[in-house]
Design brief:
By secondary structure, the protein is of the alpha+beta class. The chain is about 30% helix and about 20% strand. Helix 1 runs parallel beside helix 5 and helix 1 packs parallel to helix 14.
């Protein structure tokens, strides 16, 4: 296609696809490289929840909403910890991105939008998702992308991993180095380099370097290896945001030695399944109201525990009568006593030994809870629903902990999505969008509904539509 591209997009997921599509539609010569053998990235894993204000759908339903309201509401949930520049850029342009997706055929659930769902609710109905989660978004982007590839307007190279960013003597980004599936190394040149490589949680060594105090239990894309973050850092890019981590409540590892073996299907949301069990920490003590309606409250309570570790404790009576903790795991019962993360014992002291917690503490905790069940008042935590005592052996404990689905640290950018150096100057020709910016930049110290996936899509669209420029550079190159 060319030996010098107007735009090189590194990554073909939530941010990379709209970047490549809109740039190609504007007439750019686009090269897109993707480490995976298929496009889509984390769209295959994401719940697909997005938020936007001032959309045509809202107006049709008579919902009054503005981008400013969206921004202020998001900051309310995050307690003012969202980066103001990035937060405004995202919310100011999310409505147009949503309308674009609907024009392409995106169809959320008929009752959408809503105010809340997975996390703390908005004050206005601006929250959307579809039956097939984020795949519904991929399903409308992929045909457009496929058509541009077929027409030669996007040169797509799969199974091609970026190994570095090439900078000239002035420090401007002028290309990338890659390794192909066959092991061949190449240098590819372009005027605009857009990094949309996702997070770094699937790189245990980089995770330990960037976030050394946070235990790694993850549910992430296999290709979230931090390639873009590391490459940009080598040419002077500023990386920050590691202090904004918030764990997801909560996960169980199928393999204690594999931080990426998080089991799916655990139902810890009281809105979905009211808890019959109690949650205790490594001291054998309760640390949170198990049925607290705020997931943010529960996540921050878990974040404060040693190693973000918790145990779900119950007895035989609860096991027999409670709704399934994990409907996806029909063989969970067989794991108790046979799996290191599923303990079973005839006595509480024996269970405590398997859990590695203080037996006297666990026994006292269970007694206090049973007294609360008998009296109907949980004076320690204010739990409302307490179905039955924990008193009939055998006793059970599931070993769980906070997990990550997104990486906290990332590249620092300005309002034009140019990657910044530590001294506050932009690196010429280098841009970034998506999770490579770091989760906390758009969501702060909370999980704000739709403020992860939607900014990725929005920033990619903005880059392709208007932020990237190439006409003068093309003429010079020719």
């Amino acid at each position: 296609m060319s030996d010098h591209w107007d735009v090189i997009v590194v990554g073909a997921g939530s941010a990379g696809l709209p970047t490549a599509i809109r740039a190609a539609q504007r007439g750019a010569r686009v090269l897109q490289i993707e480490a995976d053998t298929k496009i889509g990235g984390t769209l295959f894993l994401s719940s697909g929840q997005i938020s936007a204000a001032g959309t045509k759908r809202q107006k049709k339903l008579g919902i009054e909403d503005t981008a400013q309201d969206h921004y202020e509401d998001a900051q309310r949930i995050a307690e003012g910890t969202i980066n103001p520049t990035m937060g405004k850029l995202a919310t100011d342009n999310a409505g147009a991105t949503y309308d674009w997706l609907e024009e392409l055929g995106y169809a959320p659930f008929p009752h959408m939008p809503v105010a809340g769902g997975a996390h703390e609710p908005y004050l206005t109905k601006r929250y959307y998702w579809a039956e097939t989660a984020a795949v519904a978004i991929l399903d409308v982007l992929k045909p457009v992308h496929d058509g541009l590839v077929a027409d030669g307007k996007i040169d797509l190279r799969l199974a091609t991993r970026m190994t570095g960013i090439v900078a000239d003597a002035s420090g401007a980004a002028v290309g990338v180095t890659v390794e192909t599936a066959g092991g061949k190394s190449e240098t590819l040149h372009g005027h605009n380099i857009v990094v949309t490589t996702g997070g770094y949680a699937h790189n245990a060594d980089l995770w330990k370097e960037m976030t050394p105090d946070i235990p790694l239990r993850a549910y992430t894309n296999d290709f979230s290896r931090g390639d873009g973050l590391m490459a940009a850092r080598k040419i002077g890019a500023k990386v920050d945001g590691a202090d904004t981590f918030l764990c997801t409540f909560a996960g169980v590892l199928n393999d204690p030695k594999d931080p990426y073996s998080t089991a799916l299907g655990m139902q810890f949301s009281p809105q979905v399944r009211e808890p019959w069990e109690i949650y205790v920490n490594t001291d054998g003590k309760r640390f949170v109201r198990e049925d607290h309606p705020s997931v943010d409250h529960r996540e921050h309570a878990l974040l404060a525990q040693k190693n973000q570790q918790m145990f779900i404790v119950f007895d035989e009576g609860i096991r027999q009568n409670a709704p399934a903790l994990n409907p996806l795991d029909t063989k969970m019962r067989e794991k108790f006593g046979a799996h290191p993360h599923y303990s079973k014992a005839d006595t509480l002291s024996g269970l405590a030994q398997q859990m590695g917690v203080n037996a006297a503490n666990l026994e006292a905790t269970v007694k206090a809870y049973n007294d609360a069940v008998a009296s109907g008042a949980d004076k320690a935590f204010g739990r409302i629903r307490m179905f039955r005592k924990i008193q009939k052996g055998p006793f059970y404990a599931i070993h769980a902990g906070g997990i990550t689905v997104v990486s906290p640290a990332g590249l620092n950018t300005n309002e034009r999505l140019q990657v910044m150096k530590a001294d506050g100057a932009p690196i010429p020709n280098l841009y970034a969008a998506g999770e490579v910016l770091g989760f906390g930049r758009l969501s702060g110290k909370a999980f704000v509904n739709g403020m992860s996936l939607m900014p990725a899509l929005t920033f990619g669209r903005l880059l392709g539509e208007k932020l990237l420029q190439w006409e003068g550079a093309r003429a010079a190159a020719e």
